[in-house]
Amino acid sequence: MAQSCNCIRGAAKALGPTSALRSELNLLRVPARRTIATINPPHLTSTPRIAPNSLSNPCLQSARTLVQDGWSLRSLRNVGGQTRAFTESASRHKLKTMQQIKARNRGGPFSLTGAVLFVATGGCLYAYFTYERARMTRKRIAEQTKGIGKPKVGGPFDLIDQNGARFTNQDMAGKYALVYFGFTHCPDICPDELDKMALMYDKVKERCGETILPIMITCDPARDKPAVLKEYLKEFHPEFIGLTGEYENIKQTCKEYRVYFSTPPNVKPGQDYLVDHSIYFYLMDPEGDFVEAIGRNFTADEAAKVISDHIEDWDGPLNKKDRWA
Amino acid sequence: MGWWPFSSSEQDGPKKTTGGAFEQPSRSNRAKCYEARDAFFECLDRSNILDSINTKDGRAAAKKACSAEDVVFEKDCAHSWVEYFKKQRVVNYQKEQTIKKIESEGGEIFAPQLPTRASK
């Protein structure tokens, strides 16, 4: 008897905000208690069939609508403490209103929070694996030329820079180097490529600091003396390093960098000729090993990205100080 | 090119060595040379001449139709550059035709890669 009364009160409570209905229930509480008690007290809390259609009592009508709702039934049972529904979970008791209950149950186990978390986790994993795969590809490229039995590009050289000072491969240690082979009397490709190199250099410097040396080595040492190089390169970028030297030294350097060039060894003063040569940028790491060649098909932005990514991958010592400071 | 200090030599073309090469292949000299080249090539286009250097007929036709532009071209550029550009014009045309031919046959053209860039 007391149980039934509690049930109705609980049902009224569950209806919460619908105050009109609640006041109606309050008015009808006593008849409701009696009616339920007279119908089928022992089975009330164990079956939803306690409220047949023929019942005319409005309180019972509303109790029936509650009972028809699966959750309400479980709630009633719980309050009664007689049986324990197998799908019951503690959190459900925190839900106070019918709206909350309905909102909670509408989407089943799916919710907006769950969806957002799922998508966010998936996105993070995808981004991470994409990044790792790109990094491993770069690492493989960078390490392809390290160790024994690999094609060796680059090596020791002994040349003179545009100020007439000696410049060897030792001066490249501790920094990345972007090495380009060209000559000042080049009609159209080298100037374009050097303009691109200036853009690349500025972009890499902006992202990675003073970690890279922009070097142009001439394939035409007969005409490209230090003063000529200095005059020529300052039109492209004030920080470019131009290297020249004796014909034999240049030839040896080109051989080490696997650069083809076709300068005639003995030229007369004032002779007019062109030099055919390879047109790749060579990216060298701080240990003097070849990393990657960048061809004409790269734009300045693409090349700067490739170079900067390699620099950021480097975990060895890196000299970030300005060479001339 | 008014901001460039070498513009005093504009009337006579850039300074050249006895062999016909630039003394200073500076940016302004290059720009002047490209200008002369473009003017010469425009003239060739008008006269429907492709090759102005490799064949005897081509040389004769170019001399007849565009000798004035050719003189300026030679004056403003190193002689080796003039030859280079004239040959490049033919090569570029052939390259374009080849690309068009390949593309019309449904093929694709990839820029050459060094073997170290195995995958991209």
CATH topology of the largest domain in chain A: Glutaredoxin
- What overall form of chain A do the CA principal axes indicate? elongated
- DSSP summary, beta strand count of chain A: 7
Structural class of chain B: mainly alpha
CATH superfamily name of the largest domain in chain A? Answer: Glutaredoxin
- Indicate the structural class of chain A: alpha/beta
Task: Output the helix-strand order of chain A.
Answer: HHHHHHHEEEHEHEHEEH
Relative helix content of chain B: 55-70%
Query: Element order, helices and strands of chain B?
Result: HHH
Q: How does the major sheet of chain A shape up?
A: 7 strands, mixed
The stretches of 5 or more residues of chain B where confidence is low (pLDDT under 50) are 1-11
Overall pLDDT metric of chain A: 74
Largest interface (CB within 8 Å) is between: A-B, 28 and 26 residues
Approximately what portion of the residues of chain A adopt beta-strand conformation? Answer: 5-15%
Q: What is the count of helical runs of chain B?
A: 3
The gist of it:
By secondary structure, chain A is an alpha/beta fold. Chain A is 46% helix and 10% strand.
How is this fold's topology laid out?
The complex is a heterodimer of chains A (about 325) and B (about 120).
Chain A: H1 2-15, H2 19-27, H3 29-39, H4 58-68, H5 70-80, H6 98-106, H7 112-143, E1 158-161, E2 166-168, E3 176-182, H8 189-208, E4 212-218, H9 226-233, E5 241-244, H10 247-256, E6 281-284, E7 290-294, H11 300-313
Parallel strand pairs in A: 3-4, 4-5
Antiparallel strand pairs in A: 1-2, 1-5, 3-6, 6-7
Chain B: H1 27-46, H2 56-76, H3 79-104
Helix pairs in contact in B: 1-2
List keywords for this structure.
heterodimer, A: 325 residues, Glutaredoxin, 7-stranded mixed β-sheet, B: 120 residues, mainly alpha, globular
